[in-house]
Amino acid sequence: MIVKRLASILKSVLKTPFYRLYLKRLTDAAQTWQLPQHIGIILDGNRRYARTLGLAGFMAGHDRGADKLSDVLRWCFQLNIPVVTIWIFSLDNFNRDQDEVEGLLKLIEAKTRDYILRPDLHENRVKVKYIGRTKLLPESLQNAIGEMEEKTASYERHVLNIAIAYGGREEITDACRDFLTEQIEAGRPIDELLAELKPEAIDSFMYTSGLPDPDLIIRTSGEVRLSGFLLWQSAYSEYYFCDTYWPEFRKIDLLRAIRSYHFRGRRYGR
User: pTM here?
Assistant: First the structure.
């Protein structure tokens, strides 16, 4: 394992000059690209990253993945991407080993409280919104989430949606339930509701209501599936699947994804 790791480090060192040249080339080219207005990212591969490097437990992978998020958000700010939605914890993740679940939620809380104090978050005027069934989270994490949302509520330059305790089917279920509840409380008969029901009526009850649907969705770690991420909103999204584990995600990986998006002909079903 040590030999394998040393070989990986040596390979990285040898590639550094070429990486910098390639990064500059992509960065320069990006000035001419059609950029997505909303990027969704499924942060995947933390545990496999930890296993591959022989790190001490899965939490080491999650911790490095949390640090990587700071880099990726900075790159998105530099590119002036208005909306970013990241998926950090699914409803299915509650079914993992209890020690891992508790450790991951504590890490998310610590990073949330850290981000509240980060100057770049406020300098870039990033409104942060947590989407999902957040009432299922520990109270202390809910409090941290509430503080983050309150302190960034007035910002308008960028929006960061953080999907936590999130499931795509559950989001649609919640939206339909909220719509029906509102209409029934207003006294509208059910037969009238059924006759007039349209997707637009449900859209305003989705977690991302008021924001553009994602133009581009990126998933790391080589998995080629959405796993329920933004099911409603992603009807016409472009997808980009990256083999790199999330903690190893580089700026060139992000730029490659955006380059791929730029060269696609979007027809929106037409």
Answer: 0.91
Domain total in the chain: 1
Per the rule left: phi > 0, alpha: psi between -120 and 50, beta: everything else, 217 is beta
Strand partners, 101: none
Query: How far apart (Å, rounded) are the C-alpha atoms in residues 246 and 89?
Result: 14
- Judge whether 44 counts as a catalytic residue: yes
Q: Is residue 50 assigned to a domain? A: yes
Set 28, 44, 174, 203: catalytic member: 44
pLDDT in tens, 57-79: 889 999 999 999 999 999 999 99
- Give me the CATH number covering residue 142: 3.40.1180.10
Catalytic residue among 71, 93, 174, 213: 93
Q: Long-range contacts of range 183-191, CB-CB < 8 Å, 24 or more positions apart?
A: none
For this structure, is 67 an active site residue?
A: no
